[in-house]
Amino acid sequence: MALLADDCTDRALQLMALSKRLAELLDAETAAFDRRGEALPPNLADEKTRLANTYRFELTRISQNKVLITGAPEHLRKQLEAATKSLQASIKENARAVNKLKTVSEGLVKAIGDEIARKRAAPIGYGPKLGAPPAAAQGSATAITLNRMV
Fold first, then answer.
1. What is the DSSP letter of 43?
2. Which one, of 118, 146, 124, 127, lies nearest residue 137 by Cα?
3. Residue 129 has what pLDDT?
4. Strand, coil or helix: what is 11?
5. Burial class (CB in 10 A: 0-12, 13-18, 19+), 111
6. The pTM is what?
7. DSSP structure class, residue 7
8. How far apart are CA 49 and CA 64, in angstroms?
């Protein structure tokens, strides 16, 4: 969805507001990820997706038609540049937190999978189809003595 701006100044102001709100949402999500287990605010993902799509669409429009922003006053363009840099920092920090969670999650899934595979691979008892006893049992042989009275 495109911004409905009256002129370049209005577009610059709207882009700044959009950038700041998107950065706020990313920062809130990052903080929740860093505190592990904290519930994310409801509708955060929906709003973040909607704003990110609008932001991406508007930047694409501007890159194709620079006139949409070049008429904005210099001080607004500098403020917009600062807001964009702040948003980029928020995106980078959010990506760090997401990758950290991804690594932890993948490690847990792998550990659970390895444990399940280990349990399934352990032979139960003896017999021609079961193979040798588990490695732990192989090194712990004990002597047994039988006499004829038993």
1. T
2. 124
3. 58
4. helix
5. exposed
6. 0.70
7. S
8. 23
